[in-house]
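hey m, so remember when u said the tokens were messed up on ur end? i reran from scratch. heres the input so u can diff it against urs
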Amino acid sequence: MGKFLKGPTLEGIILGMAIGLITGIGGYTFLYAKGTSYLTNNPEACANCHIMHEHYNGWIKSSHRTVAVCNDCHTPSGFFEKYATKASNGFWHSLAFTTGRFPEPLQIKPHNLEITENACRKCHQDIVEAIEGPYPGNIRLSCVRCHNSVGHLE
């Protein structure tokens, strides 16, 4: 019976220490970065990062502030899709901002641009159909190409 009750192995100790270290650093980072605020729809959460203050202030001045918050334009509408996007963006944004590896001015990534385009089209469907027409094979125009500062007035 004694042969089944072995003490911890060196690999087990190292794995436990690594998991503890990652959990501790991750937890501290989450609290320091006000991580729970990103689970809400409050636009002030986006301004937690100093680089986003200009975008937040631009949104305050825009006409969209009365009808849409950041999540309405920058996350998909489904619950799981929304929080998967928020988690992915949160990780990549925090990594970029922590390491200082991001373009200035900020540039939207293709996946997030598609999310924003779809949000424009959802809210402004009648206008989009009037411009593009309901014809098959039509070229899809980009909303933000011409209206890139609508949600974030400068």
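this time it looks ok to me. The longest helix spans residues 10-32. if urs says something different then somethings off w ur setup not the seq
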